[in-house]
Specification:
GO terms for molecular function: ATP binding; ATP hydrolysis activity; lysophosphatidylserine flippase activity; magnesium ion binding; phosphatidylethanolamine flippase activity; phosphatidylserine flippase activity. By secondary structure, the chain is an alpha+beta fold. The chain is built from 41 helices and 35 strands. The longest helix is centred in the C-terminal third of the chain and has 41 residues, at about 940-980.
């Protein structure tokens, strides 16, 4: 859980906001910060009129405010430019915004956005000849007053290309991508059809022209492939030709074919999905035919029905529901599973198709990425206007969930849609093992060059073509850098991904990034969210506190008794009585407030009542009121109806305003009108950190909030205020004016709320909601800590709540000292707070977001130098950005692998910044799961993922990589020995099919079968989690093991080639004999070496060994070009082969057995202990 920075509360004038929810203690779990647009509508053209009268009052306010934010810098006279007529051209001016935002005026032009402009008005507009790039904007002004107010700010100019930023002088070209757009449904699709992007969706990476060049570039930017390309091309030079061209082309072609086939298949699938999406048919109001999605244009009115996918970013104008409400599913956009309420503007809900087509104008802000923010307004007949917010939008790729239909106007298409702007190409993560192999490959490359030069030196430089000999040697020894290494590792990763996804002990696990499974076995830091990750996000209201008395589920019958008398105590429903009134009235007031103040919508599916809300906290509270006898019966945009269970009576309240919850404000409010009592009531609930300043002063709230937090409960403070009719009307008037502002709308609205409502609220009570721990969280955390993984919990919850959950989840061990650092905002004395942790490195650090921010700003290295050594760190009140920063800094300072796990939208940044990101599919949706490398359903599945699959993936890939390098080294050593014995002549020993077959058909399957091996049983990984520490130390693939394999390859290569030459001689006539025994020994040696390295045999391994050997034997009769077949049928051949294999393999096996007996690895000790 995380909480972000919290400016002011804002309202969107509806019951249920699409993205806001109450998060218990005030932490917005899956709320994303709403980036309010701050466009300065300097020149707001209304229709075709150009006089000042055509502007509404809002223009003057926005214009004045815009000018107040402009800072005009005088330039030297020499910098002023002249136009052709000698007049000074005011080219640009600089702007300094009070909130550091770039203020860009709306660009207006006399184009055919409104082609019905009469000639008289057009000529009057054009008569205003203001030189410079902004003259087109000023043509809409005929008022000297406004012109003078504007002109007095413009002193000098420096450029005609656009607005210049004061910081670095960057130019921004004013175009349709960064200015407001005005949409006329009747004319925009016709006259401006080429002005905006097409609505065709294309997620394909390549096309017919770019596929081959792009893919070749992506492949040959790797050194391995580029090296072999150069080697293959060198065979076209006669002086460098050593063997058949196929010997070098086929391996490289195989690698490229596998890669290109995979990419082509993926791209074809993407194109098929795009084609299905682009060809979906939609009903356009102005046309008599169905229109494909790709042909939709800005301004067209589209009618959608239940289950339809929204084809473009649209504004909801009318719904089949009389209230104008409709629900959409946004899980494909933001990952959230709850339905979102959308509302049609009041001014358009009652209009017919003709009026929607010809009499409305929509002003929309410039396209932006934020899916939770939108500014605009809709105007009817150039007179009445309604503000547009996020709650009037239908973003592309959402799905209409409500029955009936709705009509929307397209405002953004194609690349301007929120979906497209938030779609980024996922970065390819590189695993630690690949980096280690890359380092080793550099050594191999240097070795090849050194060996080539050495052989030429030994031969002497009497040959004028000695540099050609070096090139020929480089080609001969090219097998030392195995071209098949990358394809083997890539295929192995696919095997690991398949094994993970089909592991029955961790069902529904999905591998979204298949390039880093080995990193699962190298994790040293685990950064975890709390709510929904360590806890279930299954909320239950456990306590309500009224200051002098509290109630728990065990005393629900008492609360039910009070509520059952609610009819008799009707005066308490809305009446505000003193704090000394009886307990029954106080309880009833609290229950009524909880039943009204929320964003929950009751729905009936299959005659069963269910609740839809963005937060499980709110559903838990509404279910509690239902249990005690006051149910939420009906809820729409205008009213809420409560059902009294005992009497069957209903209470009706008109909803006048709703102020939805978001992670900035950390509170939500609602104004209702009780017709029966003729009373206006304002209810509000939120986190104690903000509500404590809003409610009346009291002496118990802070203490009881802390007590509930210690119990691990998520708290909400509930308050109420009675409003007079006059006060509400004044508030409503000011609030409506603020809601129409196109400049700092949210700030103005929140200011009005604070002025009229958010002060001196009556404190009704405090709620405590419990979030239960996930299954097997305690044992899982204990296993991971024993495995040597340092665990950090990053949450948005309060300090006490986080501490309580940490103790119950065993993050904090019994008796472990907890060092707490909170409310540290100044750097003075900050380092002294860390002194104790330098001494006691077994302590746990608990720090809040404010203190963490201070350390990140002033003492980043000093803080993390101490923190990374602690077994557990708990950071509370963290923002999503702080979570991501912590992950990045740990990676940067330690160089260790970091795993981040979370379940909500506010965990996405942290997950994407990790070496390994794990997302949990939870009640808050799939956003974290979709952004993660690995998706699981429960936290306890992480132990299986790391301790078992991580171990196997890393050890198998390490062994596979070393075997592939060993295979290349052995054959290269044989070549080197032959060249030395042949008077240092660069002559190929194995040519053509022998080179190709050795790396593929004759050895690949047995070597690749190592991906099915495992050194210990699965149960032992959890019985002895300490074995994981060996993996993090990187012992399976290190410089030590690499040089051991190099020595082994050197020994075996020398033995095989020397003895082969000894048995057959070096005479030219005996060359095929030597190749026969040498190559056969080479293949069988590799098969035996694979058998010696296998820990756990299975059928696949046995089959690959036998089939490969049989295939080699069967292919020998067809290799008469390379072998002397007659010699291979003699006893002398088999005797020599046996001697070579014994001398090559027996010493290796013996030395390995002796070393293992003297220095048994940890897993061997464990296996031996468990078998005793």
């Amino acid at each position: 859980m995380s909480s972000e920075s919290f400016p002011s509360l804002h309202n969107n004038n509806i019951n249920n906001s699409s993205r806001d929810h109450i998060s218990g203690s005030g932490s917005g779990k899956n709320n994303t910060k709403s980036d309010s647009s701050r466009n300065i509508n300097v020149l707001n053209k209304q229709g075709a009129n150009t006089s000042l009268d055509s502007f509404d009052l809002q223009f003057d306010t926005s214009f004045d405010a815009a000018l107040d934010n402009l800072e005009i810098h005088t330039q030297k006279e020499s910098q002023r430019r002249k136009d052709s007529g000698g007049n000074t051209v005011p080219e640009s001016f600089e702007m300094a915004s009070l909130d550091n935002d770039i203020a860009i005026p709306k660009k207006h032009s006399m184009d055919d956005t409104n082609p019905l402009l009469d000639r008289e008005n057009a000529s009057r507009a054009n008569s205003m000849d203001i030189n410079g790039p902004y003259s087109s904007s000023l043509r809409t002004l005929s008022s000297d007053n406004i012109f003078q107010r504007f002109s007095k700010y413009v002193k000098r100019s420096t450029s005609t290309s656009g607005w210049r930023l004061p910081s670095n002088g960057t130019s921004i070209t004013l175009n349709e991508d960064n200015v407001e757009r005005e949409v006329h449904p009747g004319t925009t699709p016709i006259y401006d059809k080429n002005k905006y992007p097409t609505n065709e969706v294309s997620n394909a990476k390549y096309n017919a022209i770019t596929f081959v060049p792009t893919l070749l570039y992506e492949q040959f930017k790797f050194f391995f492939n580029l090296y072999f390309l150069i080697v293959a091309l060198s065979q076209a030079v006669p002086a460098l030709r050593i063997g058949y061209l196929s010997s070098y082309i086929v391996p490289l072609a195989f690698v490229l074919t596998v890669t290109m086939s995979k990419e082509a298949l993926d791209d074809v699938q993407r194109r098929r999905r795009d084609m299905e999406s682009n060809n979906e048919l939609y009903e356009v109001v102005s046309q008599n035919r169905m229109v494909p999605s790709k042909d939709l244009k800005v301004g067209e009115l589209v009618k959608l029905h239940k289950g339809d996918r929204v084809p473009a970013d649209m504004i909801l104008l009318r719904s089949s529901e009389s209230s104008g409400e409709t629900f959409i599913k946004t899980d494909q956009l933001d990952g959230e599973t709850d339905w979102k309420l959308r509302v049609a503007p009041a001014v358009t809900q009652s209009l017919d198709d003709s009026d929607l087509q010809n009499k409305i104008t929509i002003t929309a802000s410039a396209p932006k990425k934020s899916i939770h923010a939108f500014l605009g307004k809709v105007t009817y007949k150039n007179s009445s206007s309604n503000p547009l917010s996020i709650d009037n939008t239908l973003w592309a790729n959402t799905v209409l969930a409500s029955t009936g239909y709705c009509v929307g106007c397209v405002v953004y298409t194609g690349k301007d849609t929120r979906q497209a702007m938030n779609t980024t190409v996922a970065t390819v993560k590189t695993g630690l093992l690949e980096l280690e192999i890359n380092s080793i490959s550099k050594i191999l490359c240097a070795s090849v060059f050194a060996l080539s030069v050495a052989l030429v030196c030994f031969a002497g430089f009497h040959n004028n073509d000695w540099y050609v000999d070096i090139m020929r040697y480089l080609i001969l020894f090219s097998t030392i850098i195995p071209v098949s290494l990358r394809v083997n590792l890539d295929l192995a990763k696919s095997v690991y991904a398949h094994q993970i996804e089909h592991d029955k002990t961790i069902p529904e696990t999905i591998v979204r990034t298949s390039t880093i499974p080995e990193d699962l076995g190298r994790i040293e830091y685990l950064l975890s969210d709390k709510t929904g990750t360590l806890t279930q996000n299954d909320m239950q209201l456990k306590k309500i506190h009224l200051g002098t008395v509290s109630y728990t589920p065990e005393t629900n019958d008492i609360v039910s008794g009070y509520v059952s008398n609610l009819i008799g105590r009707k005066s308490t429903i809305g009446g505000v009585s003193t704090s000394r009134r009886d307990i029954s009235g106080r309880v009833c007031d609290m229950i009524v407030a909880l039943a009204i103040c929320h964003n929950v919508t009751p729905t009936f599916e299959d005659d069963e009542l269910t609740y839809q809300a963005a937060s499980p906290d709110e559903i838990a509270i509404v279910k509690f009121t239902e249990v005690v006898g006051l149910s939420l019966f009906k809820r729409d945009r205008h009213s809420v109806t409560l059902l009294h269970s005992k009497s069957g009576a209903t209470f009706h309240y008109d909803i006048l305003k709703t102020f939805p919850f978001n992670s900035d404000s950390k509170r939500m409010g609602i104004i209702v009108y009780d017709k029966e009592r003729d009373e206006y009531l304002f209810f509000q609930k939120g986190a104690d950190t903000v509500m404590s300043k809003i409610v009346e002063s009291n002496d118990w709230l802070e203490e009881e909030t802390a007590n509930m937090a210690r119990e691990g409960l998520r708290t909400l403070v509930v308050g109420r205020k009675k409003l007079s009719k006059k006060l509400f009307e004044q508030f409503n008037k000011d609030y409506e004016e603020a809601s129409l502002s196109m400049l700092s709308r949210d700030q103005q609205m929140s200011g009005i709320i604070g002025k009229f409502l958010e002060h001196d609220l009556e404190l009704l009570g405090l709620t405590g909601v419990e979030d239960k721990l996930q299954k097997d969280v305690k044992s899982s955390i204990e296993l991971l800590r024993n495995a040597g993984i340092k665990i950090w919990m990053l949450t948005g919850d309060k300090v006490e709540t986080a501490r309580c959950v940490s103790i119950s989840a065993k993050l904090i061990s019994r008796g472990q000292y907890v060092h707490i650092i909170t409310k540290l905002s100044k750097p003075e004395g900050a380092l002294n707070q860390l002194e104790y942790l330098k001494i006691n490195k077994n302590a746990c650090l608990l720090i809040d977001g404010e203190s963490l921010s201070m350390y990140l700003t002033y003492y980043r290295e000093e803080f993390f130098d101490i923190a990374i050594r602690l077994p557990t760190v708990i950071a509370c009140r963290c923002t999503p950005q702080q979570k991501a920063d912590v992950a990045l800094i740990i990676r940067e300072l330690t160089g260790k692998r970091v795993c981040c796990i979370g379940d909500g939208g506010n965990d996405v940044s942290m997950i994407q910044c990790a070496d390994v990101g794990v997302g949990i599919v939870g009640k808050e949706g799939k956003q974290a799961s979709l952004a993660a490398d690995f998706s699981i359903t429960q936290f306890c599945h992480l132990t299986e993922l790391l301790l078992w699959h991580g171990r196997n993936s890393y050890k198998r890939s390490a062994k596979l990589a070393q075997f592939v390098m060993h295979r290349g080294l052995v054959i290269a050593i044989c070549q080197a020995v032959y060249s030395i014995c042949s008077s240092f002549e660069p002559i190929a020993l194995y040519k053509g099919w022998l080179m190709v077959g050795y790396a593929t058909c004759y050895t690949m399957a047995p070597v690749f079968s190592l991906t099915l091996d495992h050194d210990i049983d699965e149960s032992l990984t959890k019985m002895y989690p300490e074995l994981y520490k060996d993996l993090t130390e990187g012992k399976s693939l290190s410089y030590k093991t690499f040089f051991v394999w190099c020595a082994l390859s050197l020994y075996q290569g020398c033995i095989i080639q020397w003895f082969s030459q000894a048995f057959t001689g070096l005479a030219t006539d005996n060359f095929t004999k030597m190749v026969s025994i040498s190559f056969t020994a080479l293949v069988i040696n590799e098969l035996i070496m694979v058998a010696l390295e296998i820990y756990t045999w299975n059928k696949t391994m046995v089959v690959t060994e036998l089939v490969t050997f049989a295939f080699y034997v069967a292919s020998v009769p067809f290799l008469g070009e390379y072998f002397q077949l007659k010699y291979m049928t003699t006893i002398r051949f088999y005797a020599g082969l046996l001697v070579i294999l014994l001398i090559s393999i027996f010493p290796v096996w013996a030395s390995k057995s002796v070393y293992r007996a003297l220095h048994p690895p940890s897993y061997a000790k464990v296996q031996e202990f468990t078998t005793v």
